[in-house]
Amino acid sequence: MRNEIATFLNERIEAGDFPSAVYLVAEKGEIVLHEALGYAVVEPERIEAKLDTIYDLASLTKVLVTGLYAAVLLNDEDEEFNLDSKIGPFLVPDLRGSDKAELTIRQLVTHTSRLPAWVPLYLLANSRISVPKAIAMLPFQKDEMAKVVYSDLNFVLLGQAVQGTRLDHEAEYDIFTPLDLKSTAFNPLTESWCGNLDRKRIAASEKGNQFERQTCVEQGYLEPPVTAGGTDPFRTEIIWGEVHDNNAYFMGGVAGHAGLFSTAEETFKIAQQFLPNYSTLLKPETCELFRTNYTTGMNEHRSFAFQLASTPDSTAGTRMSPESFGHLGFTGTSLWIDPVKERVFILLTNRTHNRALPFANINAVRRRFHDLAIEHLDKNS
After folding, report:
1. What pTM was estimated for this model as a whole?
2. Please, what are the domains in the chain?
3. Going edge to edge, which strands form the sheet with 343-349?
4. What are the tens digits of pLDDT across the range 342-363?
Protein backbone atom coordinates (compact mmCIF):
# COMPACT_ATOMS: atom_id res chain seq x y z
CA MET A 1 0.00 0.00 0.00
CA ARG A 2 2.91 2.31 0.61
CA ASN A 3 3.81 1.82 -3.05
CA GLU A 4 0.20 2.54 -4.05
CA ILE A 5 0.29 5.89 -2.24
CA ALA A 6 3.68 6.76 -3.73
CA THR A 7 2.59 5.59 -7.19
CA PHE A 8 -0.56 7.69 -6.99
CA LEU A 9 1.25 10.84 -5.81
CA ASN A 10 4.01 10.36 -8.39
CA GLU A 11 1.30 10.17 -11.07
CA ARG A 12 -0.01 13.53 -9.90
CA ILE A 13 3.52 14.95 -9.92
CA GLU A 14 3.92 13.74 -13.50
CA ALA A 15 0.55 15.27 -14.37
CA GLY A 16 1.80 18.66 -13.14
CA ASP A 17 -0.44 19.05 -10.10
CA PHE A 18 2.59 19.77 -7.91
CA PRO A 19 6.35 19.24 -8.21
CA SER A 20 6.82 17.58 -4.81
CA ALA A 21 4.97 15.89 -1.97
CA VAL A 22 5.90 14.77 1.52
CA TYR A 23 3.27 12.69 3.27
CA LEU A 24 3.00 11.35 6.79
CA VAL A 25 0.45 8.98 8.28
CA ALA A 26 0.37 8.23 12.01
CA GLU A 27 -1.75 6.14 14.34
CA LYS A 28 -1.91 6.24 18.13
CA GLY A 29 1.09 8.53 18.41
CA GLU A 30 3.34 6.54 16.07
CA ILE A 31 4.39 7.42 12.53
CA VAL A 32 3.40 4.58 10.20
CA LEU A 33 4.12 6.04 6.75
CA HIS A 34 6.46 8.89 5.86
CA GLU A 35 7.88 9.52 2.38
CA ALA A 36 9.19 12.34 0.19
CA LEU A 37 8.60 12.49 -3.57
CA GLY A 38 9.56 14.79 -6.42
CA TYR A 39 11.43 18.09 -6.41
CA ALA A 40 10.92 20.70 -3.71
CA VAL A 41 12.54 23.27 -5.99
CA VAL A 42 12.48 23.16 -9.80
CA GLU A 43 13.62 26.68 -10.56
CA PRO A 44 16.08 28.36 -10.29
CA GLU A 45 17.65 24.95 -9.53
CA ARG A 46 16.46 21.39 -8.99
CA ILE A 47 16.41 20.16 -5.39
CA GLU A 48 14.83 16.87 -4.40
CA ALA A 49 12.23 16.81 -1.66
CA LYS A 50 13.34 15.08 1.52
CA LEU A 51 11.60 13.99 4.69
CA ASP A 52 12.81 17.15 6.43
CA THR A 53 11.89 19.56 3.62
CA ILE A 54 10.22 22.65 5.04
CA TYR A 55 6.98 23.81 3.41
CA ASP A 56 5.02 27.04 3.53
CA LEU A 57 1.99 25.70 5.41
CA ALA A 58 -0.22 28.64 4.40
CA SER A 59 -3.63 28.37 6.12
CA LEU A 60 -2.55 25.50 8.34
CA THR A 61 -1.24 28.44 10.36
CA LYS A 62 -4.86 29.05 11.37
CA VAL A 63 -5.04 25.78 13.31
CA LEU A 64 -1.42 24.97 14.19
CA VAL A 65 -0.69 28.37 15.73
CA THR A 66 -3.65 30.74 16.03
CA GLY A 67 -6.31 28.17 16.85
CA LEU A 68 -4.04 26.15 19.10
CA TYR A 69 -2.85 29.23 21.00
CA ALA A 70 -6.45 30.43 21.41
CA ALA A 71 -7.29 26.98 22.80
CA VAL A 72 -4.39 27.29 25.24
CA LEU A 73 -5.97 30.51 26.51
CA LEU A 74 -9.34 28.78 26.84
CA ASN A 75 -7.54 25.93 28.57
CA ASP A 76 -6.47 28.36 31.29
CA GLU A 77 -10.15 29.05 32.04
CA ASP A 78 -9.65 32.80 32.01
CA GLU A 79 -13.13 34.29 32.46
CA GLU A 80 -12.19 37.18 30.20
CA PHE A 81 -11.42 34.84 27.29
CA ASN A 82 -14.07 32.30 26.34
CA LEU A 83 -15.94 31.25 23.23
CA ASP A 84 -18.44 34.06 23.58
CA SER A 85 -15.96 36.79 24.49
CA LYS A 86 -16.23 39.84 22.26
CA ILE A 87 -12.97 40.75 20.53
CA GLY A 88 -13.36 44.51 21.02
CA PRO A 89 -11.62 44.62 24.44
CA PHE A 90 -8.65 42.71 23.00
CA LEU A 91 -8.26 45.12 20.08
CA VAL A 92 -8.53 48.54 21.69
CA PRO A 93 -8.28 51.12 20.15
CA ASP A 94 -8.31 49.45 16.70
CA LEU A 95 -11.97 48.39 16.82
CA ARG A 96 -13.33 51.09 19.14
CA GLY A 97 -16.70 52.25 17.85
CA SER A 98 -16.77 49.60 15.13
CA ASP A 99 -19.44 46.93 14.73
CA LYS A 100 -16.55 44.45 14.40
CA ALA A 101 -15.87 44.93 18.11
CA GLU A 102 -19.03 42.90 18.77
CA LEU A 103 -17.69 39.82 17.01
CA THR A 104 -17.01 36.87 19.30
CA ILE A 105 -14.23 34.30 19.44
CA ARG A 106 -16.81 31.67 18.45
CA GLN A 107 -17.76 33.58 15.31
CA LEU A 108 -14.14 33.98 14.25
CA VAL A 109 -13.08 30.35 14.78
CA THR A 110 -16.19 29.00 13.02
CA HIS A 111 -16.12 31.50 10.13
CA THR A 112 -19.61 32.78 10.92
CA SER A 113 -18.62 36.44 11.35
CA ARG A 114 -20.06 37.61 7.98
CA LEU A 115 -16.71 39.15 7.09
CA PRO A 116 -15.76 39.05 3.38
CA ALA A 117 -14.01 35.91 2.20
CA TRP A 118 -10.90 37.86 1.15
CA VAL A 119 -9.63 41.38 0.55
CA PRO A 120 -6.14 42.66 -0.38
CA LEU A 121 -5.20 44.24 2.94
CA TYR A 122 -1.96 45.45 1.38
CA LEU A 123 -4.07 47.79 -0.76
CA LEU A 124 -6.48 48.86 1.99
CA ALA A 125 -4.12 49.42 4.94
CA ASN A 126 -1.22 51.82 5.23
CA SER A 127 0.89 49.42 7.28
CA ARG A 128 0.80 46.17 9.21
CA ILE A 129 -0.26 48.07 12.32
CA SER A 130 -3.34 49.51 10.63
CA VAL A 131 -4.67 46.15 9.39
CA PRO A 132 -7.34 45.76 12.15
CA LYS A 133 -8.66 49.25 11.40
CA ALA A 134 -8.85 48.40 7.70
CA ILE A 135 -10.90 45.28 8.51
CA ALA A 136 -13.10 47.32 10.85
CA MET A 137 -14.09 49.56 7.94
CA LEU A 138 -15.29 46.69 5.77
CA PRO A 139 -19.06 46.11 5.54
CA PHE A 140 -20.57 42.87 6.79
CA GLN A 141 -21.90 40.56 4.09
CA LYS A 142 -25.64 41.12 4.48
CA ASP A 143 -26.73 37.98 2.62
CA GLU A 144 -24.60 35.57 4.65
CA MET A 145 -26.63 35.28 7.86
CA ALA A 146 -26.50 31.84 9.50
CA LYS A 147 -23.93 30.69 6.99
CA VAL A 148 -20.28 29.66 7.09
CA VAL A 149 -18.12 31.85 4.86
CA TYR A 150 -14.49 30.84 5.13
CA SER A 151 -12.40 34.00 5.47
CA ASP A 152 -8.76 34.74 6.20
CA LEU A 153 -9.93 37.93 7.91
CA ASN A 154 -11.41 35.95 10.81
CA PHE A 155 -8.00 34.60 11.73
CA VAL A 156 -6.18 37.83 11.00
CA LEU A 157 -8.36 39.40 13.71
CA LEU A 158 -8.09 36.37 16.00
CA GLY A 159 -4.30 36.44 15.71
CA GLN A 160 -4.30 40.11 16.63
CA ALA A 161 -6.68 39.48 19.54
CA VAL A 162 -4.74 36.63 21.17
CA GLN A 163 -1.21 37.91 20.74
CA GLY A 164 0.49 39.53 23.68
CA THR A 165 3.47 41.12 21.99
CA ARG A 166 3.60 39.34 18.63
CA LEU A 167 2.01 36.12 17.47
CA ASP A 168 5.32 34.55 16.43
CA HIS A 169 6.75 35.21 19.91
CA GLU A 170 3.72 33.64 21.58
CA ALA A 171 4.05 30.63 19.28
CA GLU A 172 7.75 30.28 20.01
CA TYR A 173 7.37 30.38 23.79
CA ASP A 174 4.10 28.46 24.16
CA ILE A 175 4.18 25.96 21.26
CA PHE A 176 7.48 25.57 19.43
CA THR A 177 9.86 25.49 22.41
CA PRO A 178 7.74 23.21 24.64
CA LEU A 179 7.40 20.77 21.73
CA ASP A 180 11.13 21.01 20.92
CA LEU A 181 10.55 22.07 17.32
CA LYS A 182 13.69 23.02 15.41
CA SER A 183 12.40 23.57 11.88
CA THR A 184 9.12 25.38 12.51
CA ALA A 185 8.90 29.16 12.33
CA PHE A 186 7.48 32.27 10.79
CA ASN A 187 10.09 33.92 8.54
CA PRO A 188 12.33 30.82 8.69
CA LEU A 189 15.31 32.42 6.98
CA THR A 190 15.54 35.28 9.46
CA GLU A 191 14.19 33.80 12.69
CA SER A 192 17.33 33.24 14.75
CA TRP A 193 15.75 31.12 17.48
CA CYS A 194 15.45 28.07 15.19
CA GLY A 195 18.99 28.40 13.86
CA ASN A 196 20.24 29.54 10.50
CA LEU A 197 18.14 27.43 8.14
CA ASP A 198 19.50 26.76 4.66
CA ARG A 199 17.05 27.98 2.03
CA LYS A 200 17.68 24.77 0.12
CA ARG A 201 15.74 22.92 2.81
CA ILE A 202 12.62 24.93 1.93
CA ALA A 203 10.19 24.08 -0.87
CA ALA A 204 9.75 26.94 -3.33
CA SER A 205 6.45 28.63 -4.21
CA GLU A 206 5.04 30.69 -7.05
CA LYS A 207 7.05 32.98 -9.29
CA GLY A 208 5.82 36.30 -7.98
CA ASN A 209 2.23 36.89 -6.88
CA GLN A 210 0.61 36.35 -10.26
CA PHE A 211 -2.44 34.68 -8.75
CA GLU A 212 -3.15 37.57 -6.36
CA ARG A 213 -2.38 40.12 -9.05
CA GLN A 214 -4.98 38.47 -11.29
CA THR A 215 -7.48 38.19 -8.42
CA CYS A 216 -7.17 41.88 -7.59
CA VAL A 217 -7.87 42.80 -11.19
CA GLU A 218 -10.81 40.38 -11.45
CA GLN A 219 -12.38 41.73 -8.25
CA GLY A 220 -11.93 45.35 -9.26
CA TYR A 221 -9.31 46.42 -6.73
CA LEU A 222 -6.83 47.34 -9.45
CA GLU A 223 -6.72 47.90 -13.17
CA PRO A 224 -3.76 47.08 -15.39
CA PRO A 225 -1.04 48.17 -15.10
CA VAL A 226 -1.25 46.79 -11.57
CA THR A 227 0.26 49.44 -9.34
CA ALA A 228 -0.69 51.07 -6.06
CA GLY A 229 0.69 54.41 -5.00
CA GLY A 230 3.17 54.32 -7.87
CA THR A 231 4.72 51.03 -6.72
CA ASP A 232 3.91 47.44 -7.57
CA PRO A 233 2.57 45.66 -4.44
CA PHE A 234 3.37 42.25 -5.87
CA ARG A 235 6.63 40.33 -5.92
CA THR A 236 7.95 39.14 -9.26
CA GLU A 237 10.77 36.78 -8.27
CA ILE A 238 10.52 33.14 -7.19
CA ILE A 239 8.99 33.12 -3.71
CA TRP A 240 11.34 30.84 -1.82
CA GLY A 241 11.69 30.98 1.96
CA GLU A 242 9.19 33.84 2.25
CA VAL A 243 5.47 33.42 2.87
CA HIS A 244 3.52 33.09 -0.36
CA ASP A 245 0.35 34.82 0.86
CA ASN A 246 0.68 38.52 0.06
CA ASN A 247 -1.42 39.73 3.00
CA ALA A 248 0.81 37.80 5.40
CA TYR A 249 3.89 39.10 3.58
CA PHE A 250 2.55 42.65 3.97
CA MET A 251 2.18 41.97 7.71
CA GLY A 252 5.86 41.11 8.01
CA GLY A 253 5.42 37.39 7.45
CA VAL A 254 3.55 36.98 10.75
CA ALA A 255 -0.23 36.73 10.64
CA GLY A 256 -3.00 34.70 12.19
CA HIS A 257 -4.07 33.21 8.87
CA ALA A 258 -0.74 32.34 7.20
CA GLY A 259 3.03 32.53 7.56
CA LEU A 260 4.01 29.28 9.29
CA PHE A 261 6.70 27.03 7.81
CA SER A 262 7.37 23.49 8.99
CA THR A 263 8.22 19.90 8.08
CA ALA A 264 5.76 17.01 7.97
CA GLU A 265 7.20 15.50 11.15
CA GLU A 266 7.03 18.71 13.15
CA THR A 267 3.54 19.38 11.82
CA PHE A 268 2.68 15.97 13.25
CA LYS A 269 4.10 16.96 16.64
CA ILE A 270 1.81 19.98 16.72
CA ALA A 271 -1.13 17.93 15.44
CA GLN A 272 -0.78 15.61 18.43
CA GLN A 273 -1.81 18.52 20.64
CA PHE A 274 -5.38 18.24 19.36
CA LEU A 275 -5.73 14.66 20.64
CA PRO A 276 -6.52 14.27 24.36
CA ASN A 277 -4.36 11.19 24.94
CA TYR A 278 -1.25 12.84 23.48
CA SER A 279 -1.58 16.57 24.08
CA THR A 280 0.88 18.14 26.50
CA LEU A 281 -0.51 21.66 26.01
CA LEU A 282 -4.26 21.15 26.40
CA LYS A 283 -6.60 19.48 28.85
CA PRO A 284 -8.63 16.54 27.48
CA GLU A 285 -11.87 18.53 27.76
CA THR A 286 -10.33 21.37 25.76
CA CYS A 287 -9.51 18.92 22.95
CA GLU A 288 -13.24 18.25 22.61
CA LEU A 289 -13.54 21.69 20.99
CA PHE A 290 -11.99 20.38 17.81
CA ARG A 291 -14.49 17.58 17.17
CA THR A 292 -17.60 19.51 18.26
CA ASN A 293 -19.89 20.83 15.54
CA TYR A 294 -20.68 24.49 16.29
CA THR A 295 -22.45 25.14 12.97
CA THR A 296 -25.17 22.48 12.98
CA GLY A 297 -27.66 23.05 10.19
CA MET A 298 -25.38 25.38 8.24
CA ASN A 299 -23.77 24.85 4.84
CA GLU A 300 -20.50 23.65 6.36
CA HIS A 301 -19.74 21.81 9.59
CA ARG A 302 -17.18 23.70 11.64
CA SER A 303 -15.57 22.98 14.99
CA PHE A 304 -13.05 25.16 16.80
CA ALA A 305 -10.88 26.38 13.87
CA PHE A 306 -11.31 23.17 11.84
CA GLN A 307 -13.69 21.82 9.25
CA LEU A 308 -15.38 18.53 10.17
CA ALA A 309 -15.40 15.45 7.93
CA SER A 310 -19.22 15.42 8.12
CA THR A 311 -19.19 18.49 5.84
CA PRO A 312 -20.52 17.53 2.41
CA ASP A 313 -17.64 17.12 -0.09
CA SER A 314 -14.94 17.62 2.53
CA THR A 315 -11.43 16.46 1.60
CA ALA A 316 -11.45 13.83 4.34
CA GLY A 317 -12.40 11.14 1.84
CA THR A 318 -14.84 8.28 2.29
CA ARG A 319 -13.31 6.33 5.19
CA MET A 320 -12.65 8.84 7.97
CA SER A 321 -14.82 9.11 11.08
CA PRO A 322 -17.44 11.90 10.78
CA GLU A 323 -15.94 13.58 13.87
CA SER A 324 -12.59 13.89 12.11
CA PHE A 325 -11.36 17.44 11.66
CA GLY A 326 -9.00 19.00 9.17
CA HIS A 327 -7.69 22.05 7.38
CA LEU A 328 -6.15 22.92 4.02
CA GLY A 329 -3.46 25.36 2.92
CA PHE A 330 -3.52 27.28 -0.38
CA THR A 331 0.06 26.32 -1.21
CA GLY A 332 -1.00 22.67 -1.38
CA THR A 333 -0.84 21.51 2.22
CA SER A 334 -3.37 19.63 4.32
CA LEU A 335 -3.85 18.13 7.77
CA TRP A 336 -6.64 15.80 8.88
CA ILE A 337 -7.05 14.18 12.31
CA ASP A 338 -9.34 11.31 13.24
CA PRO A 339 -9.93 11.57 17.01
CA VAL A 340 -11.87 8.29 17.15
CA LYS A 341 -9.02 6.15 15.85
CA GLU A 342 -6.28 8.62 16.86
CA ARG A 343 -4.93 8.96 13.34
CA VAL A 344 -3.13 11.88 11.71
CA PHE A 345 -2.85 12.44 7.95
CA ILE A 346 -0.46 15.07 6.56
CA LEU A 347 0.13 15.86 2.90
CA LEU A 348 2.50 18.71 2.06
CA THR A 349 2.89 19.81 -1.55
CA ASN A 350 3.96 23.03 -3.25
CA ARG A 351 1.33 23.22 -5.99
CA THR A 352 2.01 26.91 -6.71
CA HIS A 353 5.61 26.26 -7.78
CA ASN A 354 6.73 25.92 -11.41
CA ARG A 355 3.20 26.05 -12.77
CA ALA A 356 1.34 28.53 -14.91
CA LEU A 357 -2.09 29.69 -13.75
CA PRO A 358 -4.53 28.25 -12.95
CA PHE A 359 -3.12 26.18 -10.10
CA ALA A 360 -4.34 22.59 -9.89
CA ASN A 361 -7.29 21.89 -7.63
CA ILE A 362 -5.92 18.97 -5.61
CA ASN A 363 -8.93 18.20 -3.43
CA ALA A 364 -9.51 14.91 -5.27
CA VAL A 365 -5.86 14.06 -4.65
CA ARG A 366 -6.32 14.70 -0.94
CA ARG A 367 -9.40 12.48 -0.76
CA ARG A 368 -7.68 9.62 -2.58
CA PHE A 369 -4.58 9.95 -0.41
CA HIS A 370 -6.70 9.66 2.73
CA ASP A 371 -8.61 6.65 1.42
CA LEU A 372 -5.41 4.83 0.45
CA ALA A 373 -3.78 5.64 3.80
CA ILE A 374 -6.79 4.41 5.78
CA GLU A 375 -6.97 1.24 3.71
CA HIS A 376 -3.34 0.59 4.66
CA LEU A 377 -3.94 1.27 8.35
CA ASP A 378 -7.05 -0.88 8.49
CA LYS A 379 -5.22 -3.82 6.89
CA ASN A 380 -2.31 -3.56 9.27
CA SER A 381 -3.95 -2.64 12.58
Report:
1. 0.96
2. 2-66+177-380 (3.40.710.10), 67-176 (no CATH)
3. 47-48, 30-41, 20-27, 343-349, 333-338, 325-329, 307-308
4. 999 999 999 999 999 999 999 9
